[in-house]
């Protein structure tokens, strides 16, 4: 069958990845042949940095083939998934790092925690997160939160002129906040998902757990950093709610209490991550998304 690139991948890829994107159909076909996989369908609308294809192997077992962009090393994701050993996260079956390819157990990609009522979804998300926060292990390949956010900060500075003067001012404040968070970190680092949110936790038929995390961007650092993305989950619904600012602050307090992290650090990381994402969205021309993220940041 002809492999059509998913819409979100095409829309959000950066110019530096154009060569990879152009050769992606051929790369997927090569991996399919190498591992003797039969295609069922391409997952749509897909991710922003990877392509997922539902497949069956030579023995008829269902799986998902994921091919990631060059800036998302498959070997690092594989290392995290193997460290978790299926406890809280999807299991990896095979990996071809040079192709950015991972063969993963099949989950219900159409059903994430967002299908649940908000309160129930948050409880399930925290249950999954607790399983993921383990020791990273000796000689691990995972970058630290400090290293990761330093690279992010540089991207933010480059994007600031395109985002407008008001966004640039918010970014400067957020980067100062990031510096104080990194220098003042006291919690011993654990393995983090890195992009933990309700949409990254999918329904599973596995006997070990009904919900499993996918798509990690693994880091080592404090748990508050992982929770920070969860703070702004279902942002469209939040923006439309009366008293959105109060709801947001209450969510911070509830999440911090639930896993015993300092509420001020969770609030600060949530603010930093929202501002950075907002600036990058504005610079990329996604104005509605960027403005919504910056508005959220003001509630914190």
What does this structure look like?
One of its GO terms (biological process) is secondary metabolic process. Keywords: Kinase, Transferase. GO terms for molecular function: kinase activity; phosphotransferase activity, alcohol group as acceptor. With 300 residues, this protein is an alpha+beta fold. Helices cover 50% and strands 15% of the residues. The chain is built from 12 helices and 10 strands. It has helices at 7-12, 18-22, 24-34, 74-84, 118-132, 145-163, 165-183, 223-231, 235-239, 244-259, 263-283, 287-299; strands spanning 38-42, 50-56, 62-68, 92-96, 101-105, 108-112, 190-192, 201-203, 211-213, 219-221.
Topology (elements, then pairings):
Elements: H1 7-12, H2 18-22, H3 24-34, E1 38-42, E2 50-56, E3 62-68, H4 74-84, E4 92-96, E5 101-105, E6 108-112, H5 118-132, H6 145-163, H7 165-183, E7 190-192, E8 201-203, E9 211-213, E10 219-221, H8 223-231, H9 235-239, H10 244-259, H11 263-283, H12 287-299
Antiparallel strand pairs: 1-2, 2-3, 3-5, 4-5, 6-8, 7-10, 8-9
GO biological process, one term: secondary metabolic process
Keywords: Kinase, Transferase
Organism: Streptomyces hoynatensis
Percent range for β-strand residues: 15-25%
* CATH top level label of the largest domain: Alpha Beta
Tell me the number of strands: 10
Specify the helix fraction band. Answer: 40-55%
Instruction: Report, as a whole number of angstroms, the end-to-end distance.
Output: 49 Å
How many structural domains does the protein architecture include? Answer: 2
- Work out the radius of gyration: 19 Å
Secondary structure category = alpha+beta
Architecture of the largest domain in CATH?
Alpha-Beta Complex
N-to-C order of helices and strands: HHHEEEHEEEHHHEEEEHHHHH
The description of the largest β-sheet is: 5 strands, antiparallel
